[in-house]
Amino acid sequence: MKHLIIGTAGHVDHGKTALIKALTGIDCDTHKEEKDRGITINLGFSHLDLPDGESIGIVDVPGHKDFIKTMVAGAHGIDIVMLVIAADSGIMPQTREHLRIVEMLGVNKGIVALTKTDLVDEEMLELAKLEVLEFLEGSVIEDAPVIEVSSITGDGIDELRNEIYKLVSSIDRQAKSGNFRMYIDRIFNVKGIGFVVTGTVINGDVKIGKEVFLLPGKSKKVKIRGIERHGKAVDKVSAGDRSAMNLAGIKPEDFKRGMILSDKPLEETSMIDASITMFDNDIRIGTWSNAIFYSGTFECMARIHLLDKDTLSQGETAIVQIHLDSPAVLINKDSFILRNTSSDLSIGGGSIIDTTPLHHKKRTVKLIENTKALADAILHSDSLYDLAAIELKKESHPMLLDKLSSMLDKSGDEIMREIRENDRQGILHYDIAGKHILIDKNIDEDYRYKVIEEIGTWHKKYPIFAHGLNDKELSGKLGYASKQVGQLYISALLKKIQNEGKIISINETWALADHKVKIDSRTREQIDWVDEELERFGMEKPSMANLEPFALNRNITRDQLKAILVFLSKENKVYLFDQDFIHANIAGQARELLLADLIKKDRGVNEKEFRELIQGTKKIVQLLLALFIKEGIVTKETFYIHITEKGKKLLNN
Ligand SMILES: Nc1nc2c(ncn2[C@@H]2O[C@H](COP(=O)(O)OP(=O)(O)O)[C@@H](O)[C@H]2O)c(=O)[nH]1
Ligand SMILES: [Mg+2]
C-alpha cells in the first residue's frame, strides 16, 4: 500500500481548494465562515483514488498570510507539495513563503499547478509559465512538472491527475520505521461513537486496540477503538497516512493544541539545540532573539540563542539553543518554522539536533565544536549505530533501551540489531532483570575502574575484613543511590568483573580477588582490647558513647572501633544489634541463668524477674530477650517468658 500525502501550497485565492474539488469531488471549505468569506481558514482533508486502486491523502491548506500557522501544521508530514499558482496573478508573497516552508520541512517532491488558465490568453499564459520556471530554479522542486489547469472548465485536470499518479508510482517508500507518532490536528465528538481525532501519521504504525499516550501530559494512556484511513475503516495505519481515530478514555479537557499520540511516553522539553537557516528576507537576528516556534501543530513563543555566530542574515545557517516558553514533545530531526513575534513574516526554520541539551551559558570553542559534530551526525548520518553511539556518549550514564528508542525514534529491536551487528565498536549492552541497558564503552571502562578502586579503598580502610562492599553500597558511591537504571547497571557490571576474575563474592558483598585479610600485631592488640573491654562492662551493656572515649585513648578511631565490632561479631565473640552490642560471654551467662530458672518455674518468668536474676539494665534485658526468642530457646506470652523444647535441650547438653 502506498502511504503518501500530497499537500497544497500557494497564495490565497489562487485556486487550491477549487483544484482539490476538481480532482476529487470533495469540497474542503466546509465551514460556514469559509463559505462566507470565500477563503480557507481550517485545514481541509481529502484523498485521491489512483487508477491502481490505491489512494493517497490530500491536505488542503489556507493561503492567507494570517493562517500560516495552520499551513505549517498541515504541511508537517506531507510527502509531495502541489504548488498552486494562478496564471492571472503569478508569483505572490505566500507562493514564496509556502515553498520555503515546505522545503524547510523536508519535502522534496512536487508538482506545480498553473491554475485559472481560462482567465488568460495564450501570451499571458506563456509569460506566467516563464515566471514560474524562473521562480522554481534552485528550489528543491526545480524539476517539478508545471501543469496548466482550469478548475472551472476542467482543462488539464486529467493531465494533472496523471502526473500525480506518475510521481506517486515513482516514489518507492517503505512505511517509515520506528515508533508511532501522530500530531492531532482536529478533535470532535461523534454522537454514539465518542471522541475522534484526526492527524497525519508521521512515524511508525498503529493498530486498533492499542493503547497510546496522549502527550505532553502525565502519561495519559488512551485506547484506539477504531481507525479510518481516507474515509474507510481499517485495522492499521502507517506513516504517510491521513487517519481518523476513535479514542476511548479521553475528555475534551485532556486535549490541547499541539498534542501528539505516541506509542512511547516521550519526555517533554523546553530547551532544544538545533540547526537553523534563515529565509531570504531582509532580516538579521542577533545572539538573542525572540520568535514564534512552530512544529507540527505545536506553537509557542521562543528565545533563540545563536551559538556559533553573532548575527544571522539571509540564507545563513547557524547552530542555536532554543528556549521554548511552553513544553513540547519533540524528537531529534523534527523540523520547525520560526516566525517573527508579530507573526507577519516567516524568518526561517530548522531541524532539532538535541532535545535534552545542557543550558549553554558560555559559547566556548569546545561547546561549538561538539554541537556542530552532533548536528552533523544527527542531520547527515544514516547510521543508526552512529546516532546511538552519539546519544550514549552525550548521556555519559547507562541508559535503558526504551529511552534510547524514544530519543532516536526507532524501535528497540532495530537498535539492538544494529548494536549486535556492530559488536566490536563503541556501545556495550547488558541484559539484566529483563531490561536492556546500554552504555558507551569508554564510560563503562571508567565505571569498571571506579568500582575496583572503591572496593580497594574500602579494603585499605578495613583490612581486618575478608568481605567488601555490596551492590547497593557501590551504587551509592558511584552516584546511583536513587537511580534505578544506574543500580541495575552497577549490578550487571559487577557480575562482569566477577567473570573476569577480578572480584569475588563474599557474604553478599564484593571483595577484590587478591585481597588478603591483614591483622598486624597492633590491630590484633586492639581487637583483643575491645574484646576484653566489652566483657568488662558485663550486664551494664556499653553504648558506643561509653566505649568510644576509651578507644580513642588507645588511638582507635570510631570507624576502626565499628570495624572491630563487626569483625568480632563475625568471629562469634560479639552479638551485634542495630546500634548495640553484647559480648557473647555475657549473653552466655545470662542465657544459662535464665534457662536454669525457667525450668523450675511453670508460670514462667517476667521481665522484671529476669532483670533481677542477671542484675542487668532494662536495655540489656530487652536485647537479650529478643536474641533468645530469635534463637528459639524461649517464647514470651503476655507478660511471661517460657522455655521451649529447644531451650530444654540446650540446658541438658
Ligand atoms: N475562472 C477560474 N476561477 C477559479 C479557478 N480556480 C479557482 N477559481 C476561483 O478562485 C477563487 C478562489 O479559489 P479557491 O480555490 O478558494 O482558492 P484558494 O484560496 O487557493 O483555496 C474562487 O472564487 C474560485 O471559484 C479556475 O481555474 N478558473
Ligand atoms: Mg482554499
Describe this structure in words.
It is a single chain. The mean pLDDT is 91. The protein is an alpha+beta fold and 653 residues long. Strands 2-3-1-4-5-6 form a 6-stranded mixed sheet, sandwiched between helices. It has a 6-stranded antiparallel barrel with strand order 7-8-14-11-10-15. Strand 5, helix 5 and strand 6 form a beta-alpha-beta unit.
Oligomeric state of the chains present here: single chain
Query: What characteristic shape results from the CA principal axes?
Result: elongated
Number of strands: 33
- Biggest sheet, in brief? 6 strands, mixed
Q: Span between N and C termini?
A: 86 Å
**Helix tally?**
20
Beta-strand fraction estimate? 25-35%
Radius of gyration from CA coordinates = 37 Å
Q: What's the pLDDT, averaged over the residues?
A: 91
Low-confidence stretches: none
Helicity range: 25-40%
Strand order of the largest sheet: 2-3-1-4-5-6
Ligand inventory reads: guanosine-5'-diphosphate, magnesium ion
> Given the helix and strand composition, which structural class is it?
alpha+beta
Blueprint (SSEs and pairs):
Elements: E1 5-9, H1 16-24, H2 32-37, E2 44-49, E3 55-60, H3 68-75, E4 80-86, H4 93-104, E5 109-115, H5 122-136, E6 146-148, H6 157-170, E7 181-190, E8 194-203, E9 205-207, E10 211-215, E11 220-229, E12 232-234, E13 236-238, E14 242-248, E15 260-262, E16 269-278, E17 284-285, E18 288-295, E19 298-306, E20 312-313, E21 317-328, E22 335-339, E23 346-354, H7 365-380, H8 384-395, E24 399-400, H9 401-408, H10 412-421, E25 427-432, E26 435-440, H11 441-461, H12 471-477, H13 484-499, E27 503-506, E28 509-512, H14 521-537, H15 544-553, H16 558-570, E29 574-576, E30 581-583, H17 584-598, E31 605-606, H18 607-614, H19 618-631, E32 634-637, E33 640-643, H20 645-652
Parallel strand pairs: 1-3, 1-4, 4-5, 5-6
Antiparallel strand pairs: 2-3, 7-8, 7-15, 8-14, 9-13, 10-11, 10-15, 11-12, 11-14, 16-21, 16-23, 17-20, 18-19, 18-22, 19-21, 22-23, 24-26, 25-26, 27-28, 29-30, 31-33, 32-33
Helix pairs in contact: 11-13, 12-13, 14-16
The protein binds guanosine-5'-diphosphate (GDP) and magnesium ion (MG).
Magnesium ion is lined by residues 16-17, 40, 62.
